[in-house]
Design a protein that fits this description.
- By secondary structure, the chain is mainly alpha-helical.
- 25% of the residues lie in helices and 0% in strands.
- The chain contains one helix and no strands.
- The longest helix has 14 residues.
């Protein structure tokens, strides 16, 4: 079997010099509830090795 891959060239235009980027903080309000749900679903599907997570609390 021969597998071929395609190289992608990703480019984007540079922002204008006078473009003002917002400096306000970005809230991640959904991350705390999504993380345990994703962890549990991966554990139930046996896709998460038991030693891959360590507690830092």
């Amino acid at each position: 079997m021969i597998i071929t891959t395609q190289d992608y060239l990703i480019t984007w235009e540079k922002l204008p010099e006078d473009y003002i980027l917002p400096d306000d903080p970005v809230d991640k309000i959904y991350q705390p509830s999504q993380a345990p749900a994703l962890t549990k679903s991966l554990q139930l599907a046996a896709k998460l090795p038991p030693n891959c997570l360590t507690s830092t609390n």
